[in-house]
């Protein structure tokens, strides 16, 4: 796995307390997956909804340019996916 991944995981766990006041991402199933040698994907599942401010807050925690995709999962939940380049 990419070395920065564990540090990023810790930053997200700590930072979500501040940027996710409604617990939309905290305590949801999350998966970190290495896409290639320089990119990881962070996927939150079973999310009831998300606001733009929360997405921007997560991007600030990540601290790098990244992409976010929000997709329907079920009629009541969405999947929030961040694609993050972690190596230069």
What would you note in describing this structure?
The chain is an alpha+beta fold and 88 residues long. The protein has one domain (4-85): Alpha-Beta Plaits (2-Layer Sandwich), CATH 3.30.70. Helices cover 31% and strands 34% of the residues. Strands 1-2-4-3 form a four-stranded antiparallel sheet, with no helix packed on it. A hairpin with a 5-residue loop joins strand 3 and strand 4 (78-85). Helix 1 (4-19) packs antiparallel against helix 2. The protein is globular and about 35 Å long.
Order of helices and strands: HEEHEE
**Termini separation:** 15 Å
Return Rg in Å. 12 Å
The dominant shape is globular
- Outline the low-pLDDT stretches: none
Task: Write down how many β-strands occur, each being a DSSP E stretch of 2 or more residues.
Answer: 4
Secondary-structure content class? alpha+beta
What is the mean pLDDT?
Answer: 91
Offer a concise description of the structure.
The chain is α+β, with helices and mostly antiparallel strands and 88 residues long. 31% of the residues lie in helices and 34% in strands. It has a 4-stranded antiparallel sheet, with no helix packed on it.
Using brief descriptors, characterize the structure shown:
4-stranded antiparallel β-sheet, single chain, 88 residues, Alpha-Beta Plaits, globular, alpha+beta, 34% strand
């Amino acid at each position: 796995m990419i070395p920065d991944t564990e540090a990023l995981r810790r930053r997200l766990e700590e930072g979500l307390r501040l940027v996710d006041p409604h617990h939309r991402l905290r305590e949801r199933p999350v998966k970190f997956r290495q896409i290639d040698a320089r990119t990881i994907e962070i996927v939150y599942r079973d999310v009831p909804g998300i606001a733009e401010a929360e997405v921007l807050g997560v991007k600030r925690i990540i601290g790098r340019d990244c992409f976010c995709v929000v997709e329907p999962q079920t009629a009541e939940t969405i999947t929030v996916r961040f694609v993050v380049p972690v190596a230069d």
